[in-house]
Amino acid sequence: MKWEEMAIETQSNSMTGRWSEWFIEKIGGLLSRQAPPQRAYLCDFNKLCDKIRPVDVLLVEGRSRISRMIRHVTQSPWSHAALYIGRLQDIQEHSLQKLIKTHYDGPPDKQLLVESELGLGTIISPLDKYKDDHLRIVRPEWLAQEDVSRVVIYALNRLGKNYDVRHVFDLARFLFPWGIFPRKWRSTLFQHNAMQPTEDICSSMIADAFQSVHYPILPFIHEGNKHHIELVRRNPRLFTPSDFDYSPFFSVIKYPIFPPNIIKGYAHLPWNKEQISDL
Hints:
Order of helices and strands: HHEHEHEEEHHHEEHEH
Low-confidence stretches: 6-10, 185-198
Helix content: 25-40%
Protein name: Orthopoxvirus protein of uncharacterized function (DUF830)
Organism: Fluoribacter dumoffii
CATH class of the largest domain: Alpha Beta
Distance between the termini: 67 Å
Structural class: alpha+beta
Strand order of the largest sheet: 4-3-2-1-5-8
Radius of gyration: 22 Å
Number of helices: 9
Largest sheet: 6 strands, antiparallel
């Protein structure tokens, strides 16, 4: 191939790459736009703040277009997952405090999450960011205390990574025929480096953190060569937020709006016996 032809091809590829990046960025902005809350849930956010513990996974029923897409694809109410890491003032390791401060400049008593978000990458966010959303806490009940710290450290070391915007198109492959997408945009879920991603999505970042200490989420279980049971790690890019809800190794933590003493007297709750709600 002549040098002129190579230069033209390189320039063409560069222009195509810039155009696709621009297109993905615009689509990402459109998909991540939030709608206002539409209903109240019978949960107490203040109780959630009291009950949540470090490395609990916070599941969110998001209000954006991409959230609706994820819920449709996964057939689950949960479209986003974040990892709770506690308060800055409660983290003992000086190096971790320093790392957090490079990504967070709020008060030290604020409850914090590590999450991967479209358009922002892997960031630290305050827990009260989601006070108006439908939430669920799921807890790795059998995680050893020393591994709690390791999971937090792993997640913090992912801070600053870009969000894998191509994942939007990986989701879209379930909804649209592949012919409408250029070959370069096709799914990267099954590439050989799937276990060492350079970009994050919310659930894969958290799955990576737990799998780094060999804590099971939804492993593939089969009989090995010596007729022993073997667990095989799942590709972290295949995880969705609902997998933490479905996992038998994570417990659901409830935080109802009514205190337990009132719920125990459920027969005497102020029921309106003449009306039925359609909401």
